[in-house]
Amino acid sequence: MKKQIGLELEEHLKVIKELGSDKIEKAVQMIVDCYKNNGKVVLFGNGGSAADAQHIAAEFVGEYKLERKSLPAIALTTNTSIMSAVGNDYGFERVFERQIESMVESKDIVIGISTSGNSENVIKGILKAKEKGAKTIGFTGRSGGRLKNVVDILLNVSSDSTPRIQEAHITIGHIMCGLVEKELFENENFKWKVSKNKITMSSQKFKTLFIYSNPRIMSLVPPVVALLYRILSDAGIKMNLFDTSLYDASKGMVNADDYDKMIMAVKPYQKELEEKVGELNSIDNLVPDLQEKVRSFSPDLIMATVTESTFLYTIDLLKKIKHFNVPVLLGGVFATFASDLVIKYDEIDMLCIGEAENIIVSLCECLAKGKDPSGMQNLWVKKKDGSIVKGPLAPPVDINKNPLPDMSIFDDRRFYRAMAGKIYRMFPVETHRGCPHTCGFCNSPLQNKLYQEKTNSHYFRAKSIPLVMKEIRYYVENFNPEYFFFWADNFFFYPEKEIDEFCEAYSEIKIPFFVQSHPNQLSEHKIKRLKEVGLHRVTIGIEHGNEEFRRNVINRFYSNEQLLEGVRILHKYNVPLGANNICGFPTETPELFMDTVELNRKLNADNNSCSIFTPFYGTPLRVLAVEKGYLKNPDIIAPTNTERSILDMPQFTKEQISGKSRTFNLYVHFPKNRWPEIEKAEKMTPEGNKIWNELRQEYQKNTLT
After folding, report:
1. I need a labelling partner for 474 at 20 to 30 A (CA). Which of 127, 338, 538, 637 fits?
2. pTM of the complete model
C-alpha cells in the first residue's frame, strides 16, 4: 500500500511540475481585464469538473487569501431546477448553452472544464459564449479534445489520468485566484483596498450625512438606516442623521397615517400619540433645519434611501441643498428597479443598486482618497459628461454577518407607534429579507429573478434564531421596548423546529409582538406556541377575494378555504387578526371587488384595510398596466398606495376605485340591508360625501371604540 501511495504522489507531482506558466499568466490577465471592465466569470463542467467550477467560483465571490470586495463569479451547475428542466426539455447537451444564452455578456469570461475536452454540453456552452462575444478558457487533459479548437486559451494538463487532471485543474484554479487577487487588490493604484470592516484611508475625517426622508411619524424606525449607520461608524467614518419624519407633514401633502384613519382602517390613536410623543416639529422648519444641518456638519457624502412613494419628496429636499455641492448617493428599492430613470435627476450623483452593506465603506474610502469610484459593485456613477458607469450587481449579503443596528441615532419620539389604537414603544427586528412568493404587486419576484440571473444566488434569506434573539436582547437591555415588530413578509416561513427554538428563547422576554403571514402558511402548532410567548397580532395579506382573479392576475396562490381555516386557528387561540386588501388592480371590475368584501365579511378580523393599487416599478402588474394602456405615462412615478388611483381603466374608473376604498369597511361591517345606502356614499359628489361622513361617524362610534 505504501508503494502505491508513493507512486500516486510521484505521478501527481510530475503532472503539477509540468504545468506551463505562460498560458496561466495570459488567462489571469484576461480575468483581471474582465473584472476591471465590470464583467463576471462563468464556469461549468460535469461531475468532478462541476465541483471544480463551484470551488473556483467560491474563491472569487468569497476570498482566496486577501480580505477584499467580492468578485462576481457563477458556476452553472448549482441550480438543479434549471439543469433538470433544460435537460428534460432540450437534452443534457444544452444545459450550459441555455444558461449562457440568457446571462453571459461580451465583457464576461467563460471557463469550460472537461478532462477529456470532448464533453458535448461544455463545447456547446463555449460556442454559445463565443457567439455572445465573451472570452473563453478551457481546462482539459493532455490532448485538449475538441475543446482546444474553440477556446481562446487552452489550459491542458499533461496527463491522461482523470484524477491527476482534476487535481491539476484545482491547482490552476487556485493559482489564478491568487494572482487575480494580487493584481487587483495589492496594487496601490486599485480603487478599493479595504481591510476587514475598518477603513484604511490616511485621513479618518470623512463625514457622511444620512437623510431619512419619510413624512410618516407612524412608520417604524428604519432598520436599514440604523444598520448602515453602524457599519460606517464602526469603520471610523463620522456620521450624522437628519430624520424628516419628526416634522408634521399634515399640512400641504397627503399623509398616509391620516388617510388610514379617514377610511377607518385603524382605530383612533391621536390623543394617546400626543401624550406619548408631544408635538412634532413644524413642517415650515424642515428645509431650514436641513440646510443648517448640512452647513454645520459639512459632510463629504450625503446618503438617502427611498421607496417610489418617497422619491419625489426626497428630490425636493435635495434640491434645497444642492448648492452645498456635496455628492449624493441614493439607494433603496426604487433606485434598484427604476435606476435608469432615477440617475437622470440632477440631484443624484450615484446610485446603490441592490444592497449597500458590503460597498459603503469601500465607497467612502475611495472618495476620501479623491479617487473615482466608477466600476464598484452595486454602484452606478454619473460622470461629468453625463455618461453613467454601471457597476455589476454583487451577490446578496449574509444577513447573519451584519452587526447590530445602532438605534441610538434616533430621536426617542420615533420609537412610538400605534397598534390597534394603542401607542407602544415599538422596535423592528429583521428576521427575513426578501420573499419567495410571486405576487404581481410586489417587487420581490423581480428581485429574486435579478439575483438569480446576475449572481446565481437566492435573494430570499432568513436570519438565524440566535441572532434574532441577540438583537432582541440588545433592545431590551438598552431601549425599554414595549412591543416588537418582526420585519418579514412572512414570519411563518420559519419551519416548526425554528419556531420552537424561538419560543423557547423568547419565553424569558415576555414582550408582545406582531408578525405578518401569507394565508397558506398558518399552522396550529406555530400559532399555539407563539401565542404562549407573546404573539399579540397577525396581519394577513388577503389582497383580493376572488380565487380565479387572485391566481391568474395577481399571481397569488391560496384558496379561500385555506385562508378561512388559518383564521379559525387564530380565533381559537384569541390572536387578533388584521386583514390587508387592495382595490383597483389592472383588469379588475367593481363586481370583482365585491368578492373581496364578501370574503372579508367571513373573517371576523379585528381590523380590515383596503389600500388603492399602485403600479410600483419592478412589479409584474406595472408591466400589465402598461401593456393594457392603463398608464397614459408609462414612466410615471407612483404615489403612495393610499392616494387616488393612477390607472385609467374604462371598466373601473378612478372615482369608482376611490369610492370602493373609502366605503370598504362599511360594506364589510354593516348589514347588507344598508348596502344601497353605502353605494350612494361611494359617489365622489357633495351628496355622496355627506352620506359617507354620516356613515363614517356611525361606524367610528359603534365599531372602532
Report:
1. 538
2. 0.70
